[in-house]
Amino acid sequence: MPIPAVAVTGLGLVCPAGVGVDAGWERVCAGAPTAAADPVLAGNPVTISCRVPGFDPAALLTARRARRLDRFVQFALVAAREAVTDAGLDPGAWDGARVGVVLGNTAGGTATVEEQMRVLLAESPGRVSPLLLPMQLANMVAGTVAIELGARGPSLVVATACASGTSAVGVARDLLALDRCDVVVTGGSEAMVTPLMMAGFAQMGALSGRLDDPARASRPFDVDRDGFVAGEGAGVLVLERVADARARGARVRALVAGYGASADAHHVTAPDPQGRGFELAIRGALADAGAEPEAVDHVNAHGTSTPLNDVTEARVLRRVLGDTGALVTSTKGVTGHCLGAAGAVEAVFTVLAVERGLVPPTANLTTLDPEIDLDVAAKPTHRRIDLALSNSFGFGGQNAVLAFRAA
User: Fold this and answer.
1) How many Cβ atoms sit within 10 Å of the Cβ of residue 105?
2) Nearest-CA neighbor of 51 among 180, 184, 171, 193?
3) pLDDT at position 44 over 90
4) Which secondary-structure segment (H or E) carries 186?
5) What's the CA gap between 74 and 67, in Å, rounded?
6) Are 368 and 258 contacting, i.e. CB atoms less than 8 angstroms apart?
7) Which residues contact 345 (CB under 8 A, 6 or more apart)?
8) 139 burial class (0-12, 13-18, 19+ CB within 10 angstroms)?
9) 260, 368 in Cβ contact below 8 A?
10) Where do the domains of the chain lie?
């Protein structure tokens, strides 16, 4: 039985393109890359990243609270506050038992773990912080947001690697359809740009080595791409049933009309060369939305700027969508790859594209790879968007796709 579409009534964003939805959208639409040299990564094989600019947790959350929260939770709290305010909801007035929190995350508090490991090795076990586990555990991002909002419904974290944020939105929609909740605060958050994590990615050969020109390092679909640039951040969406949102007079920014998920069952890191898992997820989202491929107007692609991912995803999109004129973009040219938060950040951008009729450009796209037979946006493009897809794929062959309709 088809699941009814649900309303997106609120958006919140903390990402390398800016703190706040308006700031992030403006920079993404300007196609202004954020990658830069990162002093935290000094001594690593790759020393560039995409950081959230001007993020002051003490000012945003109070100094005491900021000290007790890892960066990935700080991001989520700030984005969740913005999203709930944007939705016109008052946590002091709602029935918290009917409010859920579903957030995606990959690695938990890696910065806290690395810091406390240094304490353990340099000093003693007795000097390790008692806050290590509350700051590190991945589930604490949902738990802390639930505490902040007084949300007493289902509270959980979804971990599907770089598809985590997208998977979380899909699970949140299902909770509404099953009448487990009336409101779900959903999305994803990640703060993995730490020396150990980035050393691991570098050793795998996943990161761009364009260290002499970091601003041009993240270049999805370009013939000269050589790997992704790691980013950080959080994207949060507030979801409600359409009838409930309309009844309270809420602004419906877009509809989550479909969700598809699959596994490659192929390799721990490399995508299936045939893209069979990608295709299952894309076709699943379309079927769930009751839409034919030719109805798709826009795709926010996973588009990581890695040689394998971009060409595989492009072939699948061509195979599924054909020559329909869907305009494809990857906002990772600006934000870099926000890992477990990427799908949530890009879901926010996809909602805005649908709502505003504007497809952001793929930054740094100078020469389209001749193996990529897609209409890729190289500049901001105004067009009516009735149906858009947001794609996310992760290590372990985990794939998730959301379909958004205009409200």
Assistant:
1) 31
2) 193
3) yes
4) strand 183-190
5) 10
6) no
7) 13, 15, 24, 165, 188, 233, 234, 235, 331, 335, 338
8) middle
9) no
10) 6-247, 258-405
Check residue 8 and give left, alpha or beta (phi > 0: left; psi -120 to 50: alpha). Answer: beta
pLDDT higher than threshold 80 for residue 197: yes
Chain centroid, CA 228 distance in Å: 15
CA distance 95 to 110: 34
What count of other Cβ atoms lies within 10 Å of the Cβ of residue 358?
A: 17
Which tokens hold the place of 308?
Answer: 């394998």
Q: What is the reported pLDDT for 291?
A: 96
Nearest to 224 by CA among 365, 361, 335: 365
Answer whether 79's CB lies under 8 Å from 189's CB: yes
Enumerate the active-site residues: 162, 302, 337
What is the rounded CA–CA span in Å between residue 217 and residue 226?
A: 8
Q: Would 6-247 and 258-405 be classified into the same CATH topology?
A: yes
- Domain 6-247 top-level CATH class: alpha beta
Q: Give pLDDT tens digits for 328-344.
A: 999 999 999 999 999 99
b (16+ CB within 10 A) / e for 151-164: bebbbbbbbbbbbb
Per-residue pLDDT band for 1 (boundaries 50, 70, 90) equals low
* 263: number of Cβ within 10 Å: 14
| CA 170 – CA 148 distance, rounded (Å) | 23
Q: Which residue has the tokens 């372990």?
A: 396
- pLDDT tier at 278, thresholds 50, 70, 90: very high
Residue with the two structure tokens 């509404």? 176
Segment holding 161, helix H or strand E: none
Class of domain 258-405: alpha beta
Q: Which two tokens stand for residue 100?
A: 């859920």
H/E stretch holding 375 reads strand 375-376
Q: How far is it, in rounded angstroms, from Cα 330 to Cα 359?
A: 10
AA identity, residue 203: Q
Q: How confident is the model at residue 303 (pLDDT cuts 50, 70, 90)?
A: very high
